[in-house]
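pls ignore typos typing on phone
alpha-D-glucopyranose + seq
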Amino acid sequence: MKFVTLKIFLFFLFIVSLKAQIYLDPNATVEERVDDLISRMTLEEKVGQMTQAGRSFLNSENDIRDYFLGSLLSGGGSSPNPNTAESWANMYDSYQNQALSTRLKIPLIYGIDAVHGHNNVKDAVIFPHNIGLGATRNPDLIRNAAEVTAVEVAATGIDWTFAPCIAVPRDEKWGRTYEGFGETPELAELAAVAAIYGYQGDSLNEQKTIAACAKHFIGDGGTTGGIDQGNTEISEEELRAIHLPGYLKAIEAGVGTVMASYSSWNGQKLHGHYYLLTTLLKEELGFDGFIVSDWAGIDQLPGDYKNDIKESINAGVDMVMVPDRYVEFITFLKELVNENQVSIERIDDAVKRILKIKFELGLFENPLTDRSLLNLVGSQEHRNIARECVRESIVILQKKDNVLPLRKENQKIALIGKGADDIGLQCGGWTIYWQGGLGDITEGTTLLEAVKKNTDHSNVIFSENGEDLSDTDIAVIVIAEEPYAEFEGFKEDLTIPDSDVELVKKAKEAGLKTVVILYSGRPMIINPILQYSDAVVAAWLPGTEADGIADILFGDFQPKGLLPH
Ligand code: GLC
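k done
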């Protein structure tokens, strides 16, 4: 009899334990699931959730399981080999299965800089950088671009993009000017709403939607002298008037995450700024997602690494993009909690915020890649949307009579400049590689290929240096900034280089009409070419679909882009 009673009791216990696993019940509310799960977690498991490691720094994939890592990221250019969408999906699933083999089976959230398309992935569609999207002033188009990006990111399994960058760049010497939508808070507001709805859709739980990240909070674009990661020296009134509106709209739009800025506000680093991260963003504005640090952003705080961790977590950072020394990070954070230098309440708040997003993403129900989306990566339909973005981003800066549109017949076109036939130059930084690259770095259509589609091939003579201008009627000269990202893009003098001015001058002195196309991540000082140009066209950093530029040059569509600066 006793044995039977014991068996019944054990069976009862088993049922209770199963029934009580509310966090695994998709019909429970997110709050119920979060509260149930966190009540089961050890300090080790909680600290693991707050740790984001760079995939390329994993000592072993097993570390995901052994350290209960909550997140991984691909930094710019950190790709599997081969760099194909399917290879990304296989990599993601392999990492995710490590996380699912932990005691509580808490899935990873994987983040990436898909900032103008799924730009790490070869043959994904690359959209104009945000400065070009800002020139469109078209929220529907900005939303479509984000929707397509979300589909291509989700197709590789990845759950989260570190976008949109809603910086308000105030000094164009800043190397990240092109990552912002323009120099006004109104553009940041317009873009924040459109992009976040594009990435996150009506529900994060859809297979084709991903979590967005409004960045970099706050004042990244306002540093003195445009110094990247520099010091934004303005009053609180100016900070709120210029750099905050985008975040108000982002929170209204339900953005899941916010990234802290490397920059400082009046001398204090944002990564350790309790007033801005917690009092303002979380308490005053009610942001209920989670704050992620920037890449090793906490390391820039004063003091040793353990103090960096204490300052940043207590200031309100919820997840730290370590990304390399994740074992050290975990060790120190556990010590800080055990020494009461970081409260368990702060840890629980951070972990609850992170788990909330994971439950909302549906990661517990669908942790692995939905392979049915793979064939959508780089699709013609997606390229057509990017082409429309390019078209609407074009701004005509100067146009003398009847020099545009180009004629599709009976007009010999001298297409000049390296940028006229270089996908890398068209796309700019954050494309395949962190700093971008030159040449055929990914699938796309160059301006030369696009022009040839509009006229008989014998009417187009391409040369990098414009050496052969005889027997041509008009010159189209592409002037392109070399690709750059972040601090690598700081430029004291934005004047068009003499070598480019020479190309335009030579064509004009050969008696040709001249049309200059500018590929740049910011406004440039173009005075030296004006006297030699019959038209000047700003194309920003258009991405892979140069057909959109040809659509305007040949008059199939009317230009309607407006300057974002
Ligand atoms: C970079 C950038 C940030 C990016 C992160 C991850 O340093 O500041 O915008 O999301 O690191 O690549």
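DSSP finds 20 helices and 17 strands in the chain. The chain has a mean pLDDT of 97. more later
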